[in-house]
Amino acid sequence: TLSLRPAPAGRRLFAGRCTGRQEPEGSGPFEEHPGTAAQIVWQWQARMSVDEDSGGKADDAVDRPAAPKMVPARDASGSLIKDAKGNPVMISLDSSDGGFVKEDTPNIPEGTSWFGFSEEFVEFFKYSIFLGLFCVVVFGPRNAEPFYMVKAMDDFFLSNEFDYGVSFSSLTSIGQFWTFMNATMMPNVFPMYGLNGELISRPAQRFLSDGSNYRIGAVRFRTIRVKDGLCKVPESLYNAPEGWGGDFEDDDEFKPPIDACYPTYNYVEKDYLEPEEGDKFMPMKKYNNESKLCFKYRKDTEQPVYTSTVTGITYSGNGYVIDLGVEEDPDDPGRCGLEDLYDDEGYISPTPGPTAFAPSPDPSIYPTPYPTMKPTGYKTDMESRAQEQLNMLKASEFIDRATRATFVEFTVYNANADMFVLVRLCVETTSSGTVIPTAQVMPARLLTAYRVLAGDGVKGKEYGFMWCEFALYILALGYLVGEVMEWWTVSNLYRKGEHPHGYFYGWNIVDLVNLGLFAAVAVQRMIMIFQISKMVEAGSFTKPEFNVDVQNAVEFGNSVDTMNSINAVICFIKLFKYLDSHPSLGQFTRTISQAQNDLGSFMLVIIIVLTGFGIAFMLAFGHDKSSYMTFSMSFLTLFEGMLGNLDSEMLHNPSILGCVRGQDRT
User: What is the pTM of this model?
Assistant: First the structure.
């Protein structure tokens, strides 16, 4: 604030100049400068009072304000703002705008280009073309087929009831899981009979039971286990209690009430919890020491991780692995000795060990013919071999207390939709003994881009989508080059003290995230096309072995969709950047910019309150309500309740926090 007082007689106190569309009230005769901005800091150019008779010497008695540091005014992109005469508009670096004119500048003639259109309109027009190409590339090739593919797998395996009211999604025990494998999984993945009841040909057995989805490779059965001895059993429970009867200490068959302890699985500590590479697991050893049945723990599967949607636990791609229907390598020292488990009639024979050994399963409980042949290499039908292996796994108690997750994984290809689908069924067995089924069904179009480049019988519109994608990446590269040039210019100004914030501020950060995602998508698309071409040349899609490369490619393709989904939000939000100069449409961004400090303070208050209640509700209701069983879930549930999605019926609890009480219902 500059305060003025009357000048002494014969003296000119100030020769001031004010730039603005109005003069400050009571400021005296000031000259209005043309070519000004709507939001202008009053620029005072104070000159010291000079006595006409003093010979040009300064009058020390006159109070003079310190001259502020003036710099050329720039817009948000760092471009100079000029007046009507082409001179840079000077502005105080100490002003509230920090050297920027953020609002509309109607009195400053805007740069013109392209048939007289304003520079802002040209930038908006170019970005509209870019956004239109993005919509064509992302949404053009898509239809409802991915949804129906997921629904088909859900109908086959997840919601298909194998017992009254029991499907995979509602499993509660390992016994139900084995029934699911025999009653639902095997008939649909390894079909033997067609819809007319006739035996189908061997090539047709590579399809699922619907005849439309071709199975890529084998079905993988994998378990993740934890090592024993990582947690200690209390001494009072490890020793036999008094009055047990008999001298068990001298008995060779003596076993303590709790003889082992297996901890909870944690992905971060997987190297500590999981068995070492090559560790052998012999499930039949406790029943028959002569059995050669064994598995080797593998950490070289190269399979992607799996994160449970219920428990939130992330599981590695390691484990004890058996590919159903595929003959094991006889030279592998860890190969399962299947021939030692079968009697002359082809059934799993009870061993002369303890009577606790599971009896031979009843063949009548299986929907498909129970195998009556010994494994004889590749002459044996794949379905019979797979059923044989599955029965062996069940009889040997392949899933026990040390098992933390059991996976059944396979991939199918639907030629009608030109789409791959990855199916991963997971049954978690927590340390508390709870059985939790989860699943991951992931569709992906992997061959489309490769077929366009190879000319492999695709439609004409697919070529159009490919050209649009190519043009999109070219425009993204142009925007990226422009951002690099802007970074170089603004950084130099910042080092000279002529720019208050530097490059990493405001919309520039949004631009960097947006263009960085575009660059990542472009690189991943090229890598995926290269990988698919290698798989096609190697004939990976028709081999009988489990195909890890296809599984990783589907995961890779879905990561591209995830990045595009984030980019879709950012691209449309960036429209506000180009509409900022509009008096009405830019009001939203200007309001957010002015209120950002207040909004941040309000958000901090909300987070503090939700954090306290999140911890309290987890402690009070976490043992009974799944929505509050962890802090993160409790926090999100309360946040949803703040938005109006609060299930008050869940909070009828005798806890002191269960203040929401309903009348007793009888």
Answer: 0.71
